[in-house]
Amino acid sequence: MTTGAAAPDLRAELRRGAEALAVAPRPSQARGITSDLSVDEALLLHAAGWEPLDLVCGVAVVSVPVGVWNWGRGAISLASDAHDAAVDQASRALGAECGKVRGHGVVGVRVDVAVRTHHIDVELVGTAVRPMDGKDARGNDAAQAMPFVSDLSARDFTLLLRAGWGPVGLAFGASFVYAPRRTAGTAMKQSTQNVELTNYTEAMYSARESAMEKMQRSALAVGGQGVVEVKVTEGPMSFARHAVGFTAWGTAVRLVAKEHQFVRPEVVLPLDDAVVTFEAESLRGKGR
Amino acid sequence: MTDVAGPDDPAAVAGTDGDLPEAAVRRLESSAFSSGLTVPDFAACLEIGLEPVALVQGFCVMQWGWYGPGSGFMRGMSPYVAGPQNAGAYSETYRCPHGYVSVEHRMWGQNLEQPWVEDAWAQGYGTAYRRMIEEATDHGAHGVIGVVDRVASVADTGTTEFHFLGTAVTVEGGPPPAGGVPWSTYLAGQRLTKSIEAGFMPVAVVAALASVRIWAYCMTEYLMEGQMGWGMPGGPQLVDQVSKAHMAARQLARKHVRGQLAGDELHGARIDVVGRELSQGDEVIDCTLRGNRVRRFKDFDPVPLPRPTVRLG
Questions:
Q1: A32-282: what CATH class?
Q2: Sheet of strand B183-184: strand arrangement
Q3: Residue A46 and residue B227: Cβ atoms within 8 Å?
């Protein structure tokens, strides 16, 4: 990053800081700010005109009725419903915490989902932020808007705003599907073959289509036009190998500027050469 | 045999003057410095006028013993008390909607903050931290940077070891901190430099543990076992008691840490949660929150919005 401004005298800054700590602080009733942002992320947010407010969290535990994972056919809708309910409740709790500190949204949300036999646990932790001038990207009063929840890092959040887009919420989709049983004859025939188990492949495709569709639907439900930074998890459930699960989530975004702002990166050529490592084998010559 | 006590000499371990072992006194009097900083961090610190003095450490091993009646951390005779067991502690009770069913039926449930656990943890953590800071003070340090802390159980013996490690530094040409107590931070090198450049001076590393115990009542027990209790609609249900306990653990940790900030800010917070399922919905949730307490010493000077770049090569 080149600014053209004179570099600050860091030694003087440090002495200034040390002098601030050399006197006892005045008693303060101020509510201390808490944030899990790194130094870089905090500086970047400030540069973009946003400030952190508080570390906020949302947790929900939703039960999965007994027998749900037993053998069956098609989608395991009760498990999917439990997943959706847990995510929805955790997002609401997170949004409520953000609202309490008059935040405009939550960035850098860490998403932890644990699917267990009888319950699904969802934990969301992030930092509530607000624009320093109190206005959102459209110039409206930020405090009046519904807080957004985003798992984008502060860096990606800043870049997104610069491109004229804004996060509106977390988009989530999950689907659990039974892998259809093979007939006894097929199972015996395949036992000594290297073959594709089409029942699992088909179950995976089915779960994937359903989860992706749900995620896109949830993005539209919060007013988004699309989803960025989609993450997926998939595979058989550890406690029920005959069932496969597919979850997809990301940040729903919408255009807040009149049109997309093209971010044209500058091309830079670093002059520091990559380290040339010494290869002992080369001494023997290429013929060996 | 020489007069100089070697490392294996018992006399070197237990000193006679003061409470420091003789070997430690020799080490402290040495003119050589020691540091746990990486070379880039070491170079960056010298660049801004921080001079390493010594690698300082603090240890404390705590026994996590009996928490019940008769212990130093006594919680009371019954887990099902009407309200919080310590003034201001979190507590929530749940009552069975079914009435008397059987002796085994869980008619009451409670989410209960465990201040005795939190106090024991704070005592171990605080003692180890103070010992590290005392070492730094003995060296005439102004601060401790690159702090690393570790909390681990010792070989499943019911004891917990708290270990702090950091590099004591002095500020070249700077005044000592108020009261002579060195400041501390998890940061070092470039990250510390950037924080100071932005106007935030480290004050101390802060951490707190919040511990919440769930005594499940019948509805929670049914739901966590996947059963549908009487009077419950079918399908997935929010397990209200457990969800609230988890939220409470995180909020309490934040509250405890905020109590140590005295108006300053907490940067780089890290939250760690350990849940131990005991049985049929009963659970203990331990939530640790730690980070850097920093004080703003100048008005924020925003950095210019960085220019996006693509590297060639």
A1: alpha beta
A2: B50-63, B159-171, B143-153, B183-184
A3: no
CB-based burial, A176-204: b 16+ in 10 Å, e otherwise:
bbbbbeeeeeeeeeeeeeeeeeeebeebb
Written as one letter, the residue type at B63 is Q
Give A1→chain B minimum CA distance, Å: 6
- The answer to whether the CB of B37 falls within 8 A of the CB of B147 is no
Encoded tokens for B160? 């917990």
> What are residue B312's phi and psi, to 5 degrees?
-95, 140
- Return d(Cα B194, Cα A159) in angstroms, integer: 21
A36 vs B193: CB contact, 8 Å cut-off?
no
Distance from CA of A152 to the nearest CA of B (A): 17
**Which domain does B102 fall in, by range?**
32-70+85-296
For residue B309, pLDDT over 60 is answered with yes
Q: Quick check: is B307 in a domain?
A: no
Contact B49 A66 (CB under 8 A): no
Contact B189, B37 (CB under 8 A): yes
How many domains does chain B fold into?
A: 1
Residue B162 lies in a domain: yes
Rounded to whole angstroms, what are the CA distances from B157 to B62, B127, B161, B288? Answer: 11, 20, 11, 21
In this prediction the ipTM stands at: 0.83
* CATH number of residue B177's parent domain: 3.30.110.70
A107 contacts A148 by C-beta, under 8 angstroms = no
- Tens digit of each residue's pLDDT (9 = 90 or more) over B131-145: 999 999 998 999 999
Q: Under an 8 A CB cutoff, do B196 and A28 touch?
A: no
> With an 8 Å Cβ cutoff, is A163 touching chain B?
no
Residue-wise pLDDT tens digits, B276-301: 888 778 889 999 999 999 998 988 76
Q: Which of B45, B48, B65, B244 is nearest to B158 (CA)?
A: B65
Provide the token pair at B206. 């802060």
Span B136-184, pLDDT tens digits: 999 899 999 999 999 988 776 678 899 999 999 999 998 999 889 999 9
> What residue ranges in chain A does DSSP mark as E strands?
50-63, 105-115, 119-131, 148-149, 165-178, 226-237, 240-255, 266-268
User: CA-CA distance, B186 to B91, in Å (whole number)?
Assistant: 33
**Ordered strands of the A240-255 beta sheet:** A165-178, A240-255, A226-237
